[in-house]
Design goal:
Helix content: 40-55%
CATH topology: Rossmann fold
Distance between the termini: 51 Å
Number of helices: 11
CATH architecture: 3-Layer(aba) Sandwich
Number of domains: 1
Radius of gyration: 21 Å
Structural class: alpha/beta
Largest sheet: 7 strands, mixed
Strand content: 15-25%
Order of helices and strands: HEHEHEHHHEHHHHEHEE
Strand order of the largest sheet: 1-7-6-2-5-3-4
CATH class: Alpha Beta
Shape: globular
Length: 290
Amino acid sequence: MRFRKTIILLLVVVSLSSFRQDNPAYQLFNHKGKQVKYKKLLKEAEKADIVFFGELHNNPISHWLQLELTQDLFSLKNGMITMGAEMFESDNQVILDEYLRGIKDKNSFEEEARLWKNYKTDIAPLVEFAKENKIHFVATNIPRRYASMVFRGGFEALDALSNETKALIAPLPPAYDPELPGYKNMMDMMAGHGGEPNENFPKAQAIKDATMAYFIHKNLEEGKLFIHFHGTYHSDNYEGILWYLKLLRPDLKMLTIATTEADKSRRLIQEKRGVADFVIAVPPNMTKTH
């Protein structure tokens, strides 16, 4: 009788295990749309100078994988990594540094820094990992008020800023190609939603991309892998931040990860093939963090 119960229990465990394997929370694809294992991503990421992890801001799988990949790369690179993120603006670098070094306590840091509303669930684990392991974490994004100035008045609006303030932004005027598909699509989306065409709309995106590229470049160290976290749109199709970084350092080996929603029962949808070196496909009904 006991033997029979044991056999039944083993069959149940095997059955549940098989069910979990057939119902993953995400699928990983290479740039050709072929499904691959996480260890393939890890192997290729280890060889890069910069890893760009494009997330869906409200997707928990993106954030969980960011932490997993960072921890694994930290081990493989013997601690020789730098972290950076869109979620921190350049004028908050001092506040971030003080927290990571233990000068400022958590409450003060969270009160003074302009943190995203999903900070505690999605971004804090990365910051705490950096703090625990004494990893330099770079606030790469332009302060939002200056991106808003570009949206209202173009790049020229930034000319009136002081030299001290301009140090928080990529050198002016930034290179800009309005024909890049990503920026053209932004204009098309505005028109598609009935909005009045505004040529400054993609420029506001471009000044973010240029500034993130600038601060990544400024904080590169020989022998260290830089891992950057941002919305997937900033690196999809090897544009955005990558376009600006290639102007600064065309020799860099850059690996991109994109995140998209796709029915996990199908192969990666055709239009997402080639969008990045690796694409994380998550089910559309995945729980949102905000």
